Amino acid sequence: MALSDILKKRSAAIKDAWLERLLSSYPKDSLQFLKGRADPFANPVGHTLKSGIQTLVDLLVSPEPAAAFRPSLVEILKIRALQGFTPPSQTISFVFSLKDVVRQELKNERMDTASVSKALFALDGRVDEMALMAFDIYAELKERLCEIRINEVKRNVSQLIKRSNYFNSDSDAAPDPQPGDNERQNLQRGGDR
User: Fold this and answer.
1) Which region among 69-73, 99-103, 116-120, 131-135 has the lowest average model confidence (pLDDT)?
2) Spatial distance between the Cα atoms of 103 and 120, rounded to a whole number of angstroms
């Protein structure tokens, strides 16, 4: 039996095992919530992660070009980029774990070793393409988040300047005295008499 046929036959187990690996990067409290609710409205993050993983496994064994991975990776990485995993490599490490998941599922299958090693080499290449794409997507998302934060700071500063009426004030007027200036001037003149 060809590797692609075995992977299609075992795809449900691969999807479950890969999703488990992805979810294992979350804290226990979050993990219980993400696994526990299947309703996409009650658990949109868990639903997005699960549907993204399912689509990626289906695409892995399909003849589709690597560009087909992008939409599902974007959806998963939008969530993970916002969650701020440290180090950043933890954000996309789930992609590489797919190689281990596939090998675990193939462990008990009887196959011709020469054809399997060639097919696994091709499969590893697809996973590597997926990982490189995930890295690019993650970098784009983090850059966009940074731009959003910078624009928010600019807006806040602009509003503060407008509220303070700083640029509309009379430039010839004397600056407002600092608190305590009157006391300092009195002490320099010899104190209160």
Assistant:
1) 116-120
2) 9
Domain that holds residue 135: 3-161
pTM of the model: 0.75
User: Are the C-beta atoms of residues 133 and 69 closer than 8 Å to each other?
Assistant: yes
d(CA 5, CA 116): 12
- Angstrom distances, CA of residue 73 to CA of 26, 104, 121: 18, 23, 22
Is 111 part of any domain?
yes
CA distance 193 to 191: 6
Q: Crossing angle, helix 89-106 and helix 44-60, to 10 degrees?
A: 50
Q: Could you give the number of structural domains in the chain?
A: 1
Mean pLDDT of the chain: 84
Burial class (CB in 10 A: 0-12, 13-18, 19+), 37: middle
Which two structure tokens, joined as six digits, stand for 36?
């526990």
